[in-house]
Amino acid sequence: MIKQDEAKKVLSIAVCDHYNHVNHVRQLEKERADGAAETEYASKMSFSSARTGVGKTYLIKHIADLIKVPFVKADATKFSETGYVGGDVEDLVRELVHKADGDVNRAQFGIIYIDEIDKIASAGSMIGRDVSGRGVQTTLLKLMEETEVPLRSAMDLQGQIQAALEFQRRGKSSRQTINTRHILFVVSGAFERLKEQVSRRVKGQIGFSAEPIRVMDTNSSNSLVPDFIEIRIRAGIIGRLPVRVVCERTKRG
Question: Taking CA atoms, which of 5, 76, 91, 169 is between 20 and 30 Å from 144?
Fold first, then answer.
């Protein structure tokens, strides 16, 4: 893959940091379990892209192939809050288990890539429950913060039938789960509304004291956090995505 040198560099460093931390925690678990539990590290990352077709999926999938971890990719627009019509974000974690050929332990160290994250920003003018916007963000945040995801979905009729049959045979049913602590979450989006928001803010800065800010300069990530929140991306999610990079536009032949 040609170009995207900055994205390659940022991704490589972020992925190395993440899995070095994972190895450190696993070693701590063997030596001192309480020390491992107390260890905190924000190792998630975010992508920002001006358009589709710049190679984001290829980059991340290639990294997953190189380090031999299961990889799952989906568009955020396909999901709704758990219990409503539409996909469930937790299904991505279950899909990791499928990609790992049923090996739950291996799946716990996989990579989940969610595209079009900007399109589930909750609408400020919406009346009623925003199950495909804020609801999805809430579920995604829970996964990023570490939780146990049941391998059998509550909406999976076949899985529930199997659980009922198991209960009849044994008097109990096993509740297998997968922990999300070490899963690496990567999200991306075009963030057109972010460009508009930053443009409005920059235009509002008048005079010699105005701070020069380039529109969509996501390398100055701290200055953009209020803008992400303004376009209704949850603050908790932004806090879990400390690494940001802008992919270069590629010429189409």
Answer: 5
